[in-house]
């Protein structure tokens, strides 16, 4: 059974768009909207939150590379991220796995570097020269690479 069907059947769904965007401070991201979601079938809510950071342990992207980062929220409204496989820029990016159990997907961030740029989570600003970011609000994990 695919993970997106398991999310719905298990009660881990984002019911509103979080409005993922670049954060106010350098090297951060944010949610601009109040997020309504379910965690293990229980309704939860989290106000828009600025200056969120990536979880530790992610791999830096080199020149002309791309990947998806998943943004997740748990039952205590704490955010975390996970990283998908790094691919060549222009290739479809495989979706990331959840970083833990009992988390709800908020959205995805697609990061693509140019031939002269690299990206290190929490060290490189999302608007740095040669770094292209795309924010995707999600209800559940997409069923294929993005």
- In terms of DSSP E residues, the strand content is 35-45%
Radius of gyration: 15 Å
Number of helices: 1
Distance between the termini: 20 Å
> How is the biggest beta sheet arranged?
5 strands, antiparallel
Global structural class: mainly beta
Describe the fold and architecture:
The chain is mainly beta. It has one helix at residues 3-10; strands at 13-14, 20-22, 29-31, 35-39, 42-46, 49-52, 65-74, 79-83, 87-88, 103-113, 131-137. The protein contains 1 helix and 11 strands; from the N terminus they run H-E-E-E-E-E-E-E-E-E-E-E. The strands form 3 sheets. Strands 7, 8, 9, 10 and 11 form a 5-stranded antiparallel sheet that branches. A 3-stranded antiparallel sheet has the order 1-4-5, with no helix packed on it. Strands 2-3-6 form a 3-stranded antiparallel sheet, with no helix packed on it. The protein starts with a helix and ends in a 9-residue tail after the last strand.
């Amino acid at each position: 059974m695919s993970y997106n069907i398991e999310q719905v059947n298990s009660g881990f769904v984002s019911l509103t768009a979080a409005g993922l965007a670049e954060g106010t401070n350098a090297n951060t991201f944010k949610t601009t909207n109040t997020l309504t979601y379910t965690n293990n079938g229980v309704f939860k809510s989290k106000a828009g939150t600025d200056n969120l950071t990536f979880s530790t342990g992610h791999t830096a992207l080199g020149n002309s590379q791309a990947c998806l980062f998943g943004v997740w929220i748990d039952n205590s409204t704490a955010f975390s991220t996970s990283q998908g496989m790094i691919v060549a820029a222009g290739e479809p990016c495989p979706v990331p796995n959840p970083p833990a159990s009992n988390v709800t997907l908020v959205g995805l961030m697609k990061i693509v570097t140019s031939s002269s740029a690299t990206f290190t989570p929490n060290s490189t600003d999302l608007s740095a020269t040669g770094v292209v970011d795309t924010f995707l609000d999600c209800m559940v994990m997409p069923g294929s690479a993005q």
